[in-house]
Design brief:
156 residues; alpha+beta; two-stranded antiparallel ribbon; 5 helices; globular
Amino acid sequence: MAIATFAAGCFWGVELTFSKVPGVLSTQVGYMGGHVDSPSYEQVCTGETYHAEVVQVEFDPEQVAYEALLTTFWQCHNPTTKNRQGPDVGTQYRSAIFYHDESQRVLAEQSRLELSKSAAYPQPIVTDISPASHFWKAEEYHQQYLSKRGMGHCAF
């Protein structure tokens, strides 16, 4: 089993998207990349902790390649908006890939470069690629939030 961690805006919809990928064994939402230990959702929402809302994906590399997860990541959000996804604004909504090993770093950087060269977006890609740091699991009510409510997406 392997772990991948992505930040692509509000973690509810991102979590639901990754949970549907064949080969993904489990997903958890939480916080990464900040400077406060054990942050609460309320703290993260201030933007002062600098944590991103993330989805940590446990996957079976024999069933789904990390590259396929990267494709899902790029397709489920707008990687050209700095600290923003749709109506959600703040550093907690930034686009980021947190890599867990050198192979993930290389593949993430290659995929970002290829997407940039493809001209798929009229604006530059601003996605940050950083080493994974401590994953702080979000409060239980955030876990599988949309699935628990029978929702297929976030309503804006």
